[in-house]
């Protein structure tokens, strides 16, 4: 009986949060309360961390601004050499609605792993990049994984979840998988795709692609594997992640971002 009561309460909590997330999407379209994270002219409010380089070193001009977009490019690279990189906004966030547009362009950089083909991401609840070691590949964070279709007629959803150095609760249990596929459509070619994240601290996270809710999960927690080369004092397994930095990912595939905006939401933990 107690178990049934607990499941009922959990279901109500989840449904209430889902309903709240839906309302936030509906009311967010009015344009009030939104702040531009990218001003369309420069990345002075952002800073870089690339694997094998110190914080602040924008190796190869990887992250640049052209035509009102943040462009992630590798034309000044040789072999990719696992130089996975991230461009971080300067302050952390906890409760918010984030929206942005992205598109894949060009060819994958020579030497980049096969899985990075038409692959990028929006990292969030990330550790401060100033706590990352020079040879740390991925930040301890949650990733909204962005994938492009391969043009082969096969399904390749975008807006997935990946968990470098973290775990999440999905469908009522801690997910054993590093990545969880969303229910999104497949987007081929260089079309612009709109992504949105609604993040309610550590309670509920919602992924939205082109207006459709495609994935929800909760309780992001430090744990799991995949991230390497980190300072152990920042990998406190079992610690809930209620806030963190937002970053654009660079892992060998050229990609453009634009219209990156955020609306901060009421913090129900206060």
Identify the CATH homologous superfamily: Exo-inulinase, domain 1
Distance between the termini: 32 Å
Oligomeric state of shown chains: single chain
Strands, count: 17
Overall domain count: 1
Q: Largest beta sheet, briefly?
A: 10 strands, antiparallel
Poorly predicted regions are 1-20, 22-30
Work out the strand percent. Answer: 35-45%
CATH topology: Jelly Rolls
Q: What does this molecule look like?
A:
The protein is mainly β and 270 residues long. The protein has one domain (33-264): Jelly Rolls (Sandwich). The protein is 10% helix and 36% strand. It contains one helix and 17 strands. Strands 1, 3, 4, 6, 10, 11, 13, 14, 15 and 17 form a ten-stranded antiparallel β-sheet that branches. Strands 2-5-16-7-8-9-12 form a seven-stranded antiparallel β-sheet, with no helix packed on it.
Summarize the structure.
With 270 residues, the protein is mainly β.
Keyphrases for this structure?
single chain, 270 residues, mainly beta, Jelly Rolls, ten-stranded antiparallel β-sheet, 1 helix, 17 strands, disordered N terminus
Question: Helices, strands, pairings?
Answer:
Layout: H1 2-28, E1 35-36, E2 46-50, E3 63-66, E4 69-72, E5 85-89, E6 95-104, E7 119-126, E8 142-147, E9 160-162, E10 166-170, E11 173-174, E12 179-180, E13 193-200, E14 204-209, E15 212-222, E16 245-250, E17 255-264
Antiparallel strand pairs: 1-17, 2-5, 3-4, 4-17, 5-16, 6-13, 6-17, 7-8, 7-16, 8-9, 9-12, 10-11, 10-15, 13-14, 14-15
């Amino acid at each position: 009986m107690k178990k049934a009561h607990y499941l009922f309460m959990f279901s109500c909590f989840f449904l209430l949060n889902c309903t709240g997330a839906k309302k936030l999407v509906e009311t967010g379209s009015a344009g009030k309360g939104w702040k531009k994270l990218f001003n369309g002219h420069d990345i002075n409010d952002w800073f870089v961390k690339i694997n094998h380089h110190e914080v602040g070193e924008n190796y190869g001009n990887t992250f640049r601004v052209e035509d009102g977009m943040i462009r992630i490019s590798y034309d000044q690279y040789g072999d990719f050499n696992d130089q996975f990189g991230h461009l971080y906004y300067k302050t952390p966030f906890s409760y918010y609605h984030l929206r942005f547009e992205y598109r894949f362009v060009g060819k994958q950089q020579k030497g980049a792993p096969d899985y990075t083909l038409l692959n990028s991401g929006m990292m969030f609840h990330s550790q401060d990049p100033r706590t990352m070691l020079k040879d740390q590949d991925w930040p301890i964070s949650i990733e909204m994984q962005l994938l492009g279709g391969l043009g082969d007629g096969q399904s390749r959803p975008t807006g997935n979840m990946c968990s470098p150095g973290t775990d999440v609760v999905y469908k009522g249990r801690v997910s054993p998988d590093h990545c969880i596929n969303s229910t999104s459509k497949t987007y081929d070619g260089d079309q612009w795709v709109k992504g949105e994240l609604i993040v309610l601290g550590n309670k509920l996270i919602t992924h939205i692609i082109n207006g459709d809710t495609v994935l929800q999960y909760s309780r992001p927690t430090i744990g799991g594997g995949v991230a390497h080369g980190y300072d152990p004092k920042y990998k406190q397994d079992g610690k809930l992640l209620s806030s963190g930095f937002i970053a654009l990912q660079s892992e060998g595939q050229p990609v453009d971002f634009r219209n990156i905006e955020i609306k901060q939401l009421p913090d129900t933990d206060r």
